[in-house]
Amino acid sequence: MGSFQSARHRMVRRQLRGREISDERVLSAMATVPRERFVSERLADQAYDDVPLPIGFGQTISQPYMVALTCQAARIRRGDRVLDVGCGSGYQAAVLAELGAEVYAVECIPELADRAAQTLAALGLEDRVTVQCGDGSVGHPEHAPFDAITVGAAAPRFPAALFEQLRVHGRMVVPIGDRSGQWLEVVTRGPEGPVTSRSVPCRFVPLVGAEGFQG
Ligand code: SAH
Questions:
Q1: Which parts of the chain register pLDDT below 70?
Q2: Ligand 1 centre from 110 Cα, in Å?
Q3: Residue nearest to atom 13 of ligand 1 (CA)
Q4: Ligand 1 atom at shortest distance from the alpha carbon of 153
Q5: How far is the CA of 91 from the centre of ligand 1 (A)?
Q6: What confidence score (pLDDT) does residue 1 get?
Q7: Residue 93 CA: which ligand 1 atom is closest?
């Protein structure tokens, strides 16, 4: 346990503080959530490496830096209602919950959705994160509007359906591009429409479903 904690603090120092992650609340949440619990036991020793790791079904837990950058760019505040599309291992959802958000997480692979729900419950986060299995590319209209939306898979184009579920002044962080590479884009819902800024180049697994990549 001690060694995981020191690996986690080293990760925060070298991979996050050493780059442009400066939001102390995000740094503190990243220093708290035990990432090793979101990967298989076999990969626990690599949990704090600067890379995405396989979680089965061809999917990955996102690189710590991408999770931190997403949370920082989404400017999460305590009490925000947040939609997490492509919940995968549940790690991003756990960091959002640690930041005080009320999280609705959607994952389309049933086994991953079940496992994420179990991991989050084992960490006592079940009251703050609701995991649903389904197509998150069309959002979660029953729980909209959201203060923020985080998308953990690459979208082929601007996700209009998700944008519609943002509150005015809400923020969405989403990788947009083709299968081989994307830009992490930060979209704010202004009173007149979307205001978009590009953050960093990135490579996420593809978003599937109605608004995702086909085939
Ligand atoms: N933030 C997650 C990332 C997981 S990878 C983590 O760190 O664990 C992205 C996930 O998005 C995969 O599990 C994939 O199954 C899921 N996904 C892809 N398209 C989806 C869709 N349309 N609806 C819900 N989940 C989707």
A1: 1-2
A2: 11
A3: 88
A4: 9
A5: 11
A6: 53
A7: 1
Compute the mean pLDDT over every residue in the chain, rounded to the nearest whole number.
Answer: 97
Degrees to nearest 5, angle at CA 138 with 134 and 141: 90
Residue 200 C-alpha to ligand 1 middle, in angstroms? 20
Distance CA 92, CA 114 (A): 16
Q: 151 C-alpha to center of ligand 1: Å?
A: 8
> What dihedral do alpha carbons 21, 212, 52, 104 form, nearest 10°?
60
Q: Which residues pair with 155 in a beta bridge?
A: 176
Residue 23, both tokens? 């939001």
Concatenate the DSSP letters of all residues of 101-167 into one string.
-EEEEEESSHHHHHHHHHHHHHTT-TTTEEEEES-GGG--GGG--EEEEEE-SBBSS--HHHHHTEE
Rounded-to-integer distance, Cα 213 and Cα 154, Å = 9
* Chain centre distance of CA 37: 16
Query: Cα 127 from chain centroid?
Result: 18
Look at residue 215 in the predicted model and tell me its pLDDT. Answer: 74
Q: Which of 6, 62, 89, 199 is catalytic?
A: 62
pLDDT value, residue 186:
98
Query: Looking at ligand 1, which residue's alpha carbon is closest to its atom 16?
Result: 86
pLDDT of amino acid 115: 98
Q: Which one-letter amino acid corresponds to residue 9? A: H
Which tokens sit at 142? 């029953």
Q: Which atom of ligand 1 is nearest to the CA of 137?
A: 22
